[in-house]
Amino acid sequence: MTQPKLLLASTSPYRRRCLDNLGIRFDVAAPNVDETARPDEQASDLVLRLAREKSRALADRFPDHLIIGSDQLAVAADGKVMAKPGSLANAFEQLSHCSGSRVSFLTGISLHLASSQWEYATVEQFDVCFRNLAPDQIRRYLETERPFDCAGSFKMEGLGIALFERLEGRDPNALIGLPLIALEDGLQARGLSLMDYASTEGAP
Known about the structure:
By secondary structure, the chain is an alpha/beta fold. It has five helices and seven strands. It has a single domain, classed as Maf protein (Alpha-Beta Complex), CATH 3.90.950. The chain is globular. Its main location: cytoplasm.
């Protein structure tokens, strides 16, 4: 079986950085997908559907690539869905809502290989328990890190770690938008591994 090239179907610099940090070879292209939720669509169903649609959207252009699609939402303890805030005011509202409570991050991930019509898709959950945050703590964090393009209004790989009491889940990379353990699960289901894509540049 010929090893297909990997393609990340995303414009997210955070997802790209997840793969860059592994030192593996992959290509990147932007999928054109309408991310509007359907009426009464549950968060887990939405992220799974969008991950699949993103991985399929580029299949005609890259039929021999193994295409990775991913989508993420944050869901508060009361069921409120939190997408990317886009502004300081929205981010302040989100973190105020999260203060002292548990938030579940649901990340859909899909692998699609058009040439053989093979697909793997799953949803990874990772929970974050927030500290009780004072308004001045929230504002200071937001003004320092400006995480306005991040679901949940924080960057776990940065100062956002100071907002949490504990993390619960098998893969903290899910908080960055690309659960790498789930990705490895999908690759192994195809008889592959992330190690198969490791760059040999600079190897002794």
